[in-house]
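S.,

As promised, the flavin-adenine dinucleotide run. Input:
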Amino acid sequence: MKLVVCINHVPDTETKVKIGPDGKSIDRTGVNFILNPYDEFAIEECLRLREKNGGEVVAVSLGGDSHKETLRKALAMGVDKAVLLKDEAPRDSFSVAQALADFIRGVSPDLIFLGKQSVDSDDAAVGMMVAEMLGLPSVSVAVKMEVDGKTITAEREIEGGHEKVECSIPAVITAQKGLNEPRYPSLKGIMAAKSKPIEEVQPTPAQPKVDVVAMKKPPAKSAGKIVGADVSAVPELVRLLREEAKVI
Amino acid sequence: MPAFQGVDYFNADELLSEEERLVRNTVREFVEDSVLPVIEKHNRAGTFPRDIVQKMAELGVFGATLPTTYGCAGLNNVSYGLMMQELERGDSSIRSFASVQSALVMFPIYTFGSEEQKDKWLPLLASGKAIGSFGLTEPDYGSNPGGMITRAVRKDGGFVLNGAKMWITNGTIADVSVVWAKLDGVVHGFLVEKGTKGFSAPEMKGKHSLRASVTSELVFEDCWIPEENIFPNGKGLKAPLMCLSQARYGIAWGALGAAMGCYDVALNYAKSRIQFDKPIASFQLVQEKLVYMLTEITKGQLLCIQLGRLKDQHKVKFTHISMAKRNNVYHALEIARIARDILGANGILDEYPIMRHMANLESVKTYEGTHDIHTLIIGEDITGIAAYA
Ligand SMILES: Cc1cc2nc3c(=O)[nH]c(=O)nc-3n(C[C@H](O)[C@H](O)[C@H](O)COP(=O)(O)OP(=O)(O)OC[C@H]3O[C@@H](n4cnc5c(N)ncnc54)[C@H](O)[C@@H]3O)c2cc1C
Ligand SMILES: Cc1cc2nc3c(=O)[nH]c(=O)nc-3n(C[C@H](O)[C@H](O)[C@H](O)COP(=O)(O)OP(=O)(O)OC[C@H]3O[C@@H](n4cnc5c(N)ncnc54)[C@H](O)[C@@H]3O)c2cc1C
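Predicted complex:
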């Protein structure tokens, strides 16, 4: 089974980001970058499928040299090959998907995995666009999946419940938390990954269809107001909710 | 509280390679997921979290610097140190377990053992299928192990051991113990397997420190072991002292982890705790405490990275390791005490890790060469005059 997993190198959700001097990108200094958390589920699912069916897992990431750290982590977790689509130009979801789709076309895998979204710009669009560009069926926000021959049965998370779907291979799957329990890279795996090469490929430059014009932090929350600590505060609270906050 | 992000005031991360950072981050995640959620419960009950052994083995913690042919990870010493740092941010007991298994059991078997001993024990110890302990200290010989009373005499194609060891980490749960005893007046290492006739390892109770670690006596009463259980190499006190150097190296890093844990908690607490209508972090006295903590952590960190580089280049002296162990444990303990102070009454509760680290560090200050003994080791090195007696 040939598997491709697309992974991203994103700011750690724990770090407080600052907006850079250009006003439309984040200031990367002092920001800790990590493997996109949803991509960990995608990698894990590939590793499990390979363990069961044999084959090869290729991890691919689009970005600058800094993405090698994340590709290295994927190698340490156990993927067989890592490819950097080296391009540092700003891209929107469409042009990211285009570069990934171009690469995947050359590999013709049985399954393509991505995280359901990257926690940097949160578009949740790349996976679906890749499927569309490749003309493949897609299952987004997958929390469970099984492969039986050429058929995939999967469960997707939908508002208030799960949806069970079926499609044929090849297909694109985007992983949601719950799909599996990702493994840690083992220390042995980390050492082995050190000697595995990361292949560099130059993607064709793409014109973004969407430009970021400005980035803004949400307005700082003003301090809360304590109306009182016991039942006697209820009438005043109700009055404020009705008259000031206008929510009831 | 926000998740722990490490303490790195001097961009020390730039001194680390990609895989060194990945090792550290991986072990940090492991500690968040598998140690911190259970450690307080075990500390309270005075029990060792046994199921962590298998998880640490899967991660590749044991004997992590030894070659992959024995199932080990083959890490460099800086990565190994970072691993110890993260484990001890979890708890000194967990780091102690890893130190004993790796530096005090696998290291001597690898360094002094026969091919058969290596082939038999290293894969078992690396995979966590066997647990090891290291018996050097005796009731009457702690800082002065050269005076040990435990004796081996040749008999029936093997050896008979008599004597007792005390304060032995993992003793009761160990499948194999590396025991140091005198044979014809010279210190030798012996492998004693669990269940050997004449060998018992009762657990010591009543500890206020390292409560999540098993500490035991090892008692030998006409305990016969076969010839193949003696280390063919490494005769004299130098052999166990070489093991201690390995373990102390890990402790120097480990102490930093405990200190980082305390600092992180104290800083967050100080920023959110309001007294006199202000966060206590706004008071000069509290800032001074936090600055002391961060400064000592930063110095200790740089000391350890250079120590690890020297060790990787085979240029390290045991006195370098003594300095790092002595300094980092001393300041970690001070940092834990100050963190306790910053947390006020909350500092004494086990809702916070502070008192647990503080109590643990009291043992860490004593074991593997007390603070004062390391002073004398370095003192002898720079003056040429031994001041032990
Ligand atoms: C939790 C725990 C786990 C341990 N695990 C192990 C283990 O796995 N294996 C093992 O072999 N041992 C182990 N030990 C034992 C440890 O290594 C000893 O406790 C340590 O070496 C000190 O010996 P001691 O306790 O007998 O103290 P002592 O040697 O009696 O020292 C008492 C005090 O006297 C001071 N002192 C001693 N000699 C001098 C001198 N010449 N000049 C100035 N001051 C001096 C010391 O610095 C110390 O302050 C462990 C100890 C603890 C607490
Ligand atoms: C076991 C125990 C029993 C107790 N028993 C009683 C009891 O019987 N009755 C009772 O009333 N109380 C009792 N207390 C409470 C005790 O008196 C308080 O813990 C103490 O007054 C400190 O208050 P705090 O814990 O809120 O710490 P905080 O006031 O929050 O102090 C936290 C830290 O900030 C520092 N700090 C605070 N303000 C400043 C400032 N302006 N400038 C510089 N530094 C500052 C403090 O020195 C400390 O290091 C008990 C406490 C304990 C631990």
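Residues B 100, 134-137, 142-143, 167-169, 210, 215, 363, 366-368, 370, 372-373, 376, 388 surround flavin-adenine dinucleotide (ligand 1) (CB under 6 Å). The domain at 2-201 of chain A is CATH 3.40.50.620 (Rossmann fold).

- D.
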